[in-house]
Amino acid sequence: MTRLALHWQILIAIVAAIIAGVLFDMDDRFLGISVYACLSFIGALFLNALKMVVVPLVLASIICAVAGLSGKNGIGRMGGKALLFYMSSSLAAILVGLFFVNLIAPGLSDGEPARELLDLTPKDALDEKLALVAGRDSGEIAAVIMRMVPPNIVAAASQGQMLGLITFGLLFGYFMTQLVQKQADTLRTFWEAVFETMMKMTMFIMKFAPIGVFGLIGKTVMATGFSALLPMLVFMLTVIAALAVHMFITMSLVLRFVAGVNPLRHFHAMAPALLTAFSTASSAGTLPLTMRCVEEKAGVSNKTAGFVLPLGATVNMDGTALYECVAAMFIAQAYGLDLTLGTQFLIVMTALLTSIGVAAIPAASLVAITIILAAVGLPPEGIGLLLLTDRILDMLRTAVNVFSDSCCAVVVARSEGEKTLLA
């Protein structure tokens, strides 16, 4: 018998959780045990399991990614151009998402934080945490930069200061490649083994995602009824609007004015790859078709496409970075956090860095959003709600990721003087 795919299991769990939330009240008990407390325990256990793998997973993935980019042939001129494009496009995507989430404010309901509607941490338990991050202004940007270089990396990781851990991973991965070959190979083998081990642990934890989602959604519906659905619908529409603007406006402008390519012709050339990315929600799985479309239909040479596109499938995640930013801001709004310039700068920086390090792993968005929430001092309960809309948004952001990869290939090809590109 064919086993159901994970996203179908999660969908069934969501439906079952909604039914359970309707049938039971918060005071109902089963075999002497509070149903609400039981669901809360299940959800909290799943979130704890996710948080448990964050530190080693992020560190190993970033070190392996940087070491792979700086291999025996070095990054080179073409790699430098590609990385500059990928960092710029991801930053642009995050800023688009930041604009829309501030404009629409999906985490607010009638001008008030939607914390109670979403059954998040009670106000009394959250006041102390909010006090730690309230009242930040532009001067907080300097403090954010300071946290990128912590005096004690172990203490920073234990306290959830992931920016310092990410910076350490980037530097470690780079300087690891500067060692003599034997030493570099030993370290690379070690960190690749750690990364593979953590991936297996993450995949194991995600097998229990339907159970965790059942607990998280069930307790929310039990406490609030269906009032939580409206903020989630507004959140989903906010993400879709931001993704559409980045893909159809930002990237089109880049194609026209940087690469000198007709955006409509490029969209037509990439249509098969975009449809495949949307249906599979996998950038890596779509890579062969992406390369074929970019080479055969968009006119990029095999040399450029063969280097830029695999690199992009690893480090370029425009749609994911945009989603992480909007999701974190949505949860921060729902909690009533004072979203000052310093807080938003912290979210932008963390989303940009985590989109490079963890975007290619299973459940990447959950891990990354956990990191971002920890960076601004918020608990991660809100990420359970994101699974309500995650499947369709995952398909959409994957298509944006793939399209951005193809745009980079065209831009780099134009900068390398290739003459066969679409006019």
Task: Explain the overall architecture.
This protein has 423 residues and is an all-alpha fold. The chain has one domain: Orthogonal Bundle (Proton glutamate symport protein). It has 18 helices and 4 strands. It has helices spanning 6-23, 35-69, 76-104, 123-133, 140-147, 153-158, 162-176, 181-206, 209-224, 229-257, 263-280, 283-297, 302-315, 318-335, 341-357, 364-375, 383-386, 390-415, and strands spanning 29-30, 33-34, 108-109, 112-113. The strands form 2 sheets. The protein has a two-stranded antiparallel sheet with strand order 1-2. Strands 3-4 form a two-stranded antiparallel sheet. Strand 3 (108-109) and strand 4 form a beta hairpin. Helix 3 crosses helix 10, helix 11 packs antiparallel against helix 18 and helix 15 runs antiparallel to helix 16. It starts with 5 loop residues before the first helix and ends in an 8-residue tail after the last helix. Residues 132-140 have low confidence and may be disordered.
